[in-house]
Design brief:
Elements: H1 2-11, E1 16-20, E2 27-30, E3 32-34, E4 37-42, E5 56-62, E6 69-80, H2 84-93, E7 103-109
Antiparallel strand pairs: 1-2, 1-5, 3-4, 4-7, 5-6, 6-7
Length: 111
């Protein structure tokens, strides 16, 4: 799918995206692109992400080169328990921090 290629190219370099949930203001969150999904950690030492299990949200992605608006994409948030490899990737993606979180969401894009 074309949108997956666009997202893959942009999100491999993105460290943060804007998430808009129904009835809530858009919020900038740290995110990690892995396995054709966007992973977001929330709570603990990380900012609360405006997500709930099963929520339909809009992800706003900026261009990794120009930092201008690239695309808005609908996604569904799934509360999940990451496997050890994914949890380590999420920790590594945060670079200079030692993140601790209360929740991990896998945001999946339309089929």
């Amino acid at each position: 799918m074309e949108i997956t290629r666009v997202l893959d190219a942009a999100l491999r370099k993105a460290a943060a995206v804007w998430i808009t949930s129904p009835g809530r203001e858009p919020r900038l969150v740290h995110a990690h692109w892995r396995d054709d999904a966007l992973w977001v950690i929330s709570g603990g030492t990380e900012p609360e992400a405006p997500l709930t299990d099963g929520a339909e949200v809009t992800i706003t992605v900026r261009s990794p080169t120009t930092h201008s608006h690239l695309v808005d994409v609908p996604a569904v948030a799934h509360l999940t328990e990451p496997d050890d490899e994914t949890a380590q990737a999420l920790r590594t993606a945060r670079l200079n921090t030692r993140p601790e979180w209360e929740a991990v969401y896998r945001l999946e894009f339309g089929s």
